[in-house]
Design goal:
3-stranded antiparallel β-sheet; globular; alpha/beta; Rossmann fold; 313 residues
């Protein structure tokens, strides 16, 4: 179980972060753990491991979808089960890789030569779009927010520079100051609810507000495993609140200052122009269809949401 506990710690501490990356990492961990189980109680061991991984970070549904996908294994004997679980884990990992590539190809069409694009936090899906536009010869610039308190904007700025893309780093509170210099905004997603709302890094909804006011298109890059079956029946997405020490020094905390540190916020669908998924660019209103028809969640009216065992590439 060590391998699972270590992986869980890496996700919690954000050594491994990003909605796609934690999902993929969970699938890899379940696969690697399955290879080590030598006892008959395969199902119990796997269930326990899945639970530990699921309880690391609450907001990104990609983690839930990854675990649920891998854990929908079948088989009679332990060997059959193991084999099927490993196959499903590999399928999920391929899904992550292929989806990101496809999102880049589909999304880059929305970015024209000469565009200045604003992005927030560090989204591999959003960066895939920006990098693909650059690779296709479009001269673009990016304005990247710092994304406090964890400074993921620094990662974005570095990754864009390493790809040869011109990038300007701004503080989060300067978004409205610069919004009129921007041709479009593109961000990633931790979760998309059945009603089309986007849950993403704290500050995203303020950017969407500023973009709407300035009539700047606001796009989301999200793989279909970021859509939340749990929200089909109105369940609210849990917003992770992280430790106060990420925001304030000890001296302030010792004085009794209360700190709130939500890691994500909710952008209503009215602020979103388009969601770029690996199966096409869709309006946020189509989120329900993605969950039911693409992800195959069909448990309407049942206590437990059920997933059929369709496969993805
Ligand atoms: P990709 C991140 O969460 C950010 O909110 C980012 O927008 C989102 O995951 C999606 O990232 P965190 O783990 O899956 O930094 O597109 O809290 O890489």
């Amino acid at each position: 179980m060590d391998i699972v506990l270590r992986a869980a710690e890496k996700i919690k501490s954000m050594e491994v972060r990003g909605a796609a990356r934690i999902a993929r990492f969970a699938a890899e961990t379940l696969r690697d753990y399955a290879l080590r189980i030598r006892w008959d109680n395969f199902d119990d061991c796997m269930r326990k491991a899945a639970e530990i991984l699921l309880n690391t970070r609450p907001t990104a549904v990609s983690l839930y979808n990854a675990i649920n996908y891998v854990m929908s294994y079948s088989g009679e004997s332990v060997e059959e089960k193991r084999e099927n679980l490993i196959k499903r884990a590999e399928e999920f990992i391929n899904w992550v890789e292929n989806a990101q590539k496809r999102i880049g190809e589909i999304g880059e069409k929305r970015i024209k030569d000469g565009y200045t694009v604003m992005t927030h936090c560090n989204s591999s899906a959003a960066l895939s779009v920006i990098k693909k536009a650059h690779k296709n010869g479009k001269e673009i610039e990016v304005i990247a927010t710092e994304s406090r308190p964890r400074w993921q904007g620094h990662l974005t700025a570095r990754q864009l520079r390493e790809s040869g893309i011109k990038v300007t780093l701004i503080v989060d509170s300067a978004v409205r100051y610069f919004i009129n210099d921007v041709d479009c905004v593109i961000v990633g997603a931790d979760t998309i609810a059945a009603n089309g709302a986007l849950i993403n890094k704290i500050g995203t909804s303020q950017i969407a507000l500023a973009a709407k006011e300035a009539r700047v298109p606001f796009m989301v890059a999200a793989e279909t495993y970021k859509f939340s079956p749990k929200t089909l029946f109105g369940e609210l997405v849990v917003i992770e609140e992280r430790d106060a020490s990420e925001v304030a020094p000890k001296e302030l905390l010792d004085l009794g200052v209360t700190v709130r540190n939500p890691a994500f916020d909710v952008t209503p669908r009215e602020y979103i122009d388009v969601i770029i998924t690996e199966i096409g660019a869709i309006p946020p209103e189509m989120a329900y269809i993605i969950i039911t028809e693409r992800l195959g969640y069909t448990g309407i009216g049942e206590d437990e949401i059920t997933v059929d065992s369709r496969h993805f590439d």
